[in-house]
Amino acid sequence: MGTPETSFGHGGGDTHHIEHTFDCQEPLPSLLIDRTPAADLGREADAVWESEEVRTGVKAGQWGWSFDELLVAWRAAEDVGFDLISCFDHVSAAPIGNVAWDAPTLLTAMAGVTSRIRLAVHVLNVSLRPPLLLAGQLAVAQATSGGRLEVGLGTGSWHLARHDHRVAGVPFPPFAERVRRLEACCRTFPELWRGETVTEEILGLDEASLGPEEIEPPPIVVGGTSDRVLRVAAAHADAWNASSVEADRFAELAAHLDELAGDRRVGRQVQLWFREVGLDGARAARGRYEEAGADTLIFVLDDERDPDTIARLADVVRAD
Question: Are the C-beta atoms of residues 304 and 10 closer than 8 Å to each other?
């Protein structure tokens, strides 16, 4: 497999080696694989989403990955029993020239080569793409997956989103405007997925509709840690996602979210860079964040692209 153009370092040491076999040279499957009928999978997906068990997943941070590496990682994650696979939203090679893959399209590719695992994006920049187009792309992924999609929405980080906006010729709005767009997307996307006609000035929608697509609206996960974003999550999201925050801080933010949400039940997810915890620290990290109130723990992969590492991570964090 190829290596990324830039190195971000690796996680900690290994645990005992457990043999898992993945023949990465085998021909890739056809895009659409045999699967349970969509209606049945939708019911199974709902049961997973509502489970009281802490879910674990991996996020193949696709910036710099080849497509074959992504396919191998997704299939490996499903084979070893992870609950969720994820991607992120950075569509351009800027600023350092890494290969980039479009997240909404990538979700449909994930759906085509898996049959059980939940599919997510953490998180989409709601200011980069026309909202109707984005909602339509996500509807395709939801239909293709048989109802396994979880839609992460956010305001776009200054660190990378500004490069996407610059190269695409799309103005990068001030933060307050991005929050307004986030709130509007959280409100209108479920309406569009239900086939309703939507007019929303903030998003520039004028009697917009996707038609009667007959899909179950996927759950919305709002990502971010600012008070304004937490308020959007508390009011409109099915879950909230925080990235790379310490467990104590996560607990504080989760408590604030609960206060804002009142009687609404909002899920609580956290993303951790695998390189920062390593195999030796992954199990302890799960314990810390579970105690802090997380119901979903996602390990972000960068240089860790081989399926054996994914399998050993699953053995560690999913052990009883």
Answer: yes
Number of CB atoms found within 10 A of residue 213's CB: 15
Q: Is 57 exposed, middle or buried (0-12, 13-18, 19+ CB in 10 A)?
A: buried
CATH number of 55-317: 3.20.20.30
Give phi and psi for 198, each to the nearest 5. -125, 135
The yes-or-no verdict on residue 165 having pLDDT over 60 is yes
The residue among 179, 178, 290, 311 whose CA lies nearest residue 233 is 179
User: How far lies 62's CA from each of 41, 129, 166, 245, in Å?
Assistant: 26, 19, 20, 21
Rounded distance between C-alpha atoms, residue 26 and residue 185, angstroms: 41
Question: What's the average model confidence in pLDDT over 310-317?
Answer: 96
Q: How far apart are CA 195 and CA 236, in angstroms?
A: 19
In the three-class reduction of DSSP (H, G, I as helix; E, B as strand; rest coil), residue 298 is classed as strand
Q: Find, among 91, 57, 113, the residue nearest to 164 by Cα.
A: 91
Contact 219, 240 (CB under 8 A): no
pTM reported for the whole predicted model: 0.86
